[in-house]
Amino acid sequence: MTDRDPTPDTQLDAGDFASWLVEIRGAIRGDNPSDVPCGDCTACCTASQFIHIAPDETDALAHIPSALLFPAPRLPSGHVLMGYNERGQCPMLIDNRCSIYEHRPRACRTYDCRVFAATGLEPDDDKILVAQQVRRWRFSFATQSDHDAYDALCTAANQLRLDPSELPQGISPSNTTHIAIHAIEIADTH
Ligand code: SF4
After folding, report:
1. pLDDT recorded at residue 157
2. Protein residue with its CA nearest to atom 2 in ligand 1
3. How many domains, in total, are found in the chain?
């Protein structure tokens, strides 16, 4: 928990852009988790998302009832998904808190809604609460070169959105999160 102002239209400090870019690229490679200052926000836990859990995530799997898991389509045996309830909430969200926070899946550890603020992309239409949160983030830029890197990333993301043929196989053009993450991976920000 933080002392962050919960008012939806209040700006939030997203941190130094250049430092964040290094961190998120590490998280995408699997080198480190994302360190998102979520505060009280549970928007991504209530956004009707299927949570992918890989077979090597034994700790998470041990803390989630198997009845909540089902085989992940188009992925090898052992990969599973956790769905959401009739209100679009993850079933592990209890009293507005993650009940397995220390054991949460990798997808939750690496999700960072600042990928939208960094690329200028909007979350998918059904992610209203996530979109509200995204509009609050504000990065800071230590140098003009950092700001140029931000501009380059927004341009790369917009190009991918407009021309999904540039997306690699397996990335759906209708999944804005995946487009944003791919843009972060490939954008020339040096
Ligand atoms: S497992 Fe926890 S962090 Fe992940 S979506 Fe569910 S409630 Fe949120």
Report:
1. 95
2. 98
3. 2
